[in-house]
Write a structure and sequence with these properties.
Blueprint lengths: L6 H13 L4 E5 L6 E6 L5 E2 L8 H12 L18 H20 L9 H23 L11 E5 L6 H4 L8 H12 L5 E5 L13 H6 L3 E3 L6 H7 L2 E4 L4 H8 L3 E4 L10 E4 L5 H6 L7 H14 L2 E2 L14 H29 L1
Parallel strand pairs: 4-5, 4-7, 5-6, 7-8, 8-9
Antiparallel strand pairs: 1-2, 2-3, 2-10
Helix pairs in contact: 2-9, 2-11, 9-11
């Protein structure tokens, strides 16, 4: 068991794969809340599952709430404990920084940058944000007609979500360039929305030039997602949680890659961002968004277990006997199912 994030973890995943050893990554499900799934190696494919289904009315409520942007992936919306105050959040953030500095001073060099390197990266990030803000002040977004653009919400990097699970589609400069060129002649533009917690993807070489090219409009950083989503012809993503909102709302969504999210009912996988324009012109309307949404929710429930998977340092509200019992039951059920799966996992590797 482990995560598939840091380089040493990915080396372990590769070593396990060559030996036919299951490497399982426990992760909170995006939707619905309060469940844990076990991902196989460095993929989004799941192992095990409770086999449960939700009552149809409960599943329908989730589909409706997601479609209306009232139900967000990876939130503490159903937490029973009190949310931390603003002071507690600032105190925790400072504590996290001090913990990393202390680890670096004690000799940790593999995954923790020096405080000086971290500060330099943050200064470069802030400078990049200022440049993009200046670009959006003269952007042609106001000239983009509703229903005549594809929305690409950028994903934060570095992050497992796109750099590992979305590989090899993690070069977002290339994605924007190729997608924008493919839309030429379709009557649609590409509109790019920065991630709300934009990080070092802003430092990729050529990003500013990429965003300034004809055929690309950049949404102001503080512009709400809801109107952009509503007026878009379709959305493009790699592994962003926005694809759930698209599927549940019946909004066309093109997904780069052949990972598990690209196989969800209602999603259209793309082999390359350069094929976006052709796929857009061949796009057919979703026949039954509600049925697709229900199928997605029930599949997540079937392949996961009840229980909050949490960080005990920052999410103490889940540190109680009831949650531990659910997590223990999930691991027990999974481990009991592994002997019957070992052969199939080994065969898949072979």
């Amino acid at each position: 068991f482990g995560e598939s994030t840091q380089f040493h973890e990915l080396i372990t995943v590769a070593a396990c794969r060559t030996r036919g050893i299951p490497f399982l990554h426990p992760a909170a499900t995006r939707i619905p809340h309060g469940r844990i799934s076990f991902l196989e190696g460095d993929t989004l494919d799941t192992c095990g599952g409770s086999g449960e289904t939700l009552p149809q009315d409960q599943a329908a409520d989730i589909v409706q709430a997601v479609a209306e942007r009232r139900y967000t992936a990876f939130t503490n919306a159903t937490a029973t404990g009190p949310e931390p105050s603003a002071w507690q959040r600032r105190q925790r953030a400072l504590g996290d920084k001090l913990t990393m500095v202390r680890a670096w001073l004690q000799g940790e060099r593999f995954v923790t940058p020096s405080p000086w390197r971290k500060r330099a990266l943050e200064q470069r990030r802030q400078a990049a944000l200022a440049q993009i803000d200046a670009l959006t002040s003269t952007s042609t977004l106001e000239q983009v007609r509703p229903g005549r653009y594809v929305l690409y919400p950028m994903q934060m990097q570095p992050e497992t979500n796109i750099d590992v699970w979305g590989a090899p589609y993690h070069d977002q400069v290339r994605i924007i360039n190729e997608a924008a060129r493919s839309l030429a002649g379709t009557g649609c533009q590409l509109v790019v929305k920065l991630n709300p917690t934009a990080k070092y993807e802003l430092l990729e070489p050529g990003l500013l030039q990429c965003l300034a090219q004809p055929g690309v409009a950049v949404a102001p950083r503080r512009m709400a997602m809801a109107p952009l989503f509503a007026d878009a012809t379709a959305l493009l993503t790699v592994t962003g949680s926005v694809l759930y909102e698209c599927i549940f709302a019946g909004k066309p969504v093109f997904v780069l890659g052949q990972h598990a999210l690209s196989r969800l009912a209602g999603a259209t996988p793309l082999a390359s961002p350069s094929s976006l324009g052709q796929a857009l012109q061949a796009m057919a309307p979703s026949l039954d968004a509600r049925a697709n949404g229900m199928a997605v929710v029930q599949e997540v429930v079937r392949s996961s277990y009840p229980g909050y998977w949490f960080d005990p340092l920052s999410m103490q509200q889940y540190d109680h006997a009831g949650n531990w019992a659910q997590l223990g039951a999930a691991f027990d059920h999974l481990l009991l199912s592994l002997p019957s799966r070992a052969g199939s996992l080994a065969a898949r590797v072979a």
